[in-house]
């Protein structure tokens, strides 16, 4: 069983590495966005899947990461990777702050609080013209590694893949750690967990901080991919589509995060013919998923997987 | 062991406790009686700092002020709550629930020995160890809840309505078990509506009415108090 899982993981890796070959520039770009979205889905895996906290404000963290990185690269001459790290850290600080209302309110109220946060970030970035360029936006240099500019999205895709794998590895370790398990216990029953001596506040803050960090990193990477930032990129609709993709991909699986990212990046391409009906299709997909596949698309894969395998003999 | 003095608590404008004072001596079972809304659960919530109310006064655990300390810090000082309605991890097994009791305290270093101790106290849980907690009867769930608290190596256990929703025979059994854990030198503060059973096993008791302590004393004395008889024991 363990071997089967390792082999499956290696196969997925192989496919991910081989994927860009034969695609054109546009294909590279789409693949790059798959990775960028998958990182956000990973961050929602931590926040919602493990922590049971809701956020419809992740576009705010995404924006903070994007602008944070772009600004330190442009104005302070930071190298690309350092900029991405700064972007993640800026978002993480705000993540810890957004966790504070989460200590008091839950569910719909928390959703509204995070929504307010995202709108606030978007508005401040828009109005702060001196720093962000306001309406004109901001031109962001191409990513570069150790002095070499990554000219094409083909090479950038591999950087993004590496970042995704690193963050997925961190997520896996976090899930198995004392802190991660405490968080999941709080999600199952916060009263029961608190009776077992698990402190709720610090774990909620950690969940938001990690989640915001991941999303900030993703935003930073996205800014360098786009080459130009404007605040319209970070609208409420983006927060909602993040949530949608994370649910559709699967909130309890790193492979599910990858599927979610692929869904968000590819669906608009595949459904372009449908024009305005696209939103209807997204909505129906989400409803079907919540109704019949609460574990997301990845649970479908897992289901097929278990059917294919002969049942284990009873011990 | 536990000394609550002049404790007041309010939820916004609504006052739940008014200058409550009570003491629980080491090694004792002390019952807190009172009807719905008297403030019993609020009092336990204040002691464990797990309710969102504003508190004033003093709560001392072995002389140390614990009012306002975070819940986990209070638990690691040896004061553990068995909450109203059991509050188990429904989808986890009995054994996993028990192990969780040790999880937050010392990262479960002594869990194996403690688990054996709990199984000796509640032999019935041994056969149920691999079963999901949600599938147990109310009485067994209550045993798991008490067992989980014991896993944290408490010096004092606060029990909130352990008889809630149990059949009379089981109520008796649970109260006998409470006496057993008290026999393991664990002090007990027992909040109950079932005054008869509570007074049967308690050494001392307090009566809480509308946020005030209105009577207190040795359990057998209170059991003869005409007011207590009329209000809580239902005899003329």
The portion of residues forming beta strands of chain B comes to 25-35%
Residue-averaged pLDDT of chain B: 87
Overall strand count of chain A: 4
Poorly predicted runs of chain B: none
Summarize the structure.
Chain A has 315 residues and is mostly helical. Helix content of chain A is 75%, strand content 3%.
Describe this structure as you would to a colleague.
The complex is a heterodimer of chains A (315) and B (236). Chain A is an all-alpha fold and 315 residues long. Chain A has helices at 2-18, 25-50, 58-76, 80-102, 107-127, 129-132, 153-176, 178-188, 190-195, 200-226, 236-249, 254-270, 278-292, 297-308, and strands at 138-139, 144-145, 148-149, 228-229. The model of chain A has no long low-confidence stretch (mean pLDDT 89). The longest helix of chain B is centred in the C-terminal third of the chain and has 16 residues, at 168-183. Helix content of chain B is 39%, strand content 27%. Chain B has 236 residues and is α/β, with parallel strands linked by helices. Chain B starts with a strand and ends with a helix. Chain B has one domain (2-88, 155-233): P-loop containing nucleotide triphosphate hydrolases (Rossmann fold), CATH 3.40.50. Chain B has a six-stranded mixed sheet, with helices on both faces. Chain B has a four-stranded antiparallel sheet with strand order 2-1-4-5, with helices on one face.
